[in-house]
TrEMBL record:
<dbReference type="GO" id="GO:0110001">
    <property type="term" value="C:toxin-antitoxin complex"/>
</dbReference>
<dbReference type="InterPro" id="IPR037038">
    <property type="entry name" value="HepT-like_sf"/>
</dbReference>
<comment type="similarity">
    <text>Belongs to the HepT RNase toxin family.</text>
</comment>
<keyword id="KW-0378">Hydrolase</keyword>
<dbReference type="Pfam" id="PF01934">
    <property type="entry name" value="HepT-like"/>
</dbReference>
<keyword id="KW-1277">Toxin-antitoxin system</keyword>
<dbReference type="GO" id="GO:0004540">
    <property type="term" value="F:RNA nuclease activity"/>
</dbReference>
<dbReference type="GO" id="GO:0016787">
    <property type="term" value="F:hydrolase activity"/>
</dbReference>
<keyword id="KW-0540">Nuclease</keyword>
<dbReference type="InterPro" id="IPR052379">
    <property type="entry name" value="Type_VII_TA_RNase"/>
</dbReference>
<keyword id="KW-0597">Phosphoprotein</keyword>
<protein>
    <recommendedName>
        <fullName>DUF86 domain-containing protein</fullName>
    </recommendedName>
</protein>
<dbReference type="InterPro" id="IPR008201">
    <property type="entry name" value="HepT-like"/>
</dbReference>
C-alpha cells in the first residue's frame, strides 16, 4: 500500500537524523553525519515526488516538486523555502562542490533536523486527511 511506502520513508528520515552524533569530530563521524543528512534529505525529496504524483500532478525535479506542493497547499511558503535550502545542501554534499565546507555543513545540522521534522509532521497531517 502506498501509505506504507510513505511510512517507510518517514521512518528512515527519523532514524537517519537521530543517528547523527551531537558533536561529530572524528572523520568517520563527520562522514556519517554527511551521509545521514544527504539520505534523509533525499528521502524527503522522494516523499515530495510521491505526493505530487498522488495529487495527480506531473512530477518534476526536486525544486519543482516543492513549488507544486506549495501551490496546492501542502506546504506553506516558509517550509517550501526551507526544503529548497535542504535540497541545495544535499546537492552540495552529493557533488562535493568546491570541497565541502565541513564547518558550514555541521553548523546546519540542527536546522536541517528541525526542517525535516516539520516536513514529516506536515506529511503525516496530509496523509491522515487524504485518500493516498
Amino acid at each position: 500500500m502506498r501509505k506504507e511506502r510513505y511510512r517507510e520513508k518517514i521512518e528512515y528520515i527519523i532514524e537517519a537524523i537521530n543517528e547523527i552524533p551531537p558533536n561529530p569530530e572524528r572523520p568517520i563521524e563527520v562522514s556519517g553525519t554527511f551521509y545521514n543528512l544527504l539520505t534523509a534529505i533525499e528521502s524527503a525529496m522522494d516523499i515530495s515526488a510521491m505526493l505530487v504524483k498522488d495529487f495527480g500532478k506531473r512530477v518534476e525535479d526536486d525544486y519543482g516538486n516543492i513549488e507544486i506542493l506549495q501551490e496546492i497547499g501542502v506546504l506553506d511558503g516558509e517550509l517550501a523555502e526551507n526544503l529548497k535550502m535542504c535540497n541545495g545542501l544535499r546537492n552540495w554534499l552529493v557533488h562535493r562542490y568546491n570541497r565541502v565546507d565541513k564547518e558550514l555543513v555541521l553548523s546546519s545540522v540542527e536546522e536541517v533536523k528541525e526542517i525535516l521534522t516539520k516536513f514529516i509532521k506536515r506529511v503525516e497531517d496530509v496523509l491522515e486527511k487524504a485518500e493516498l
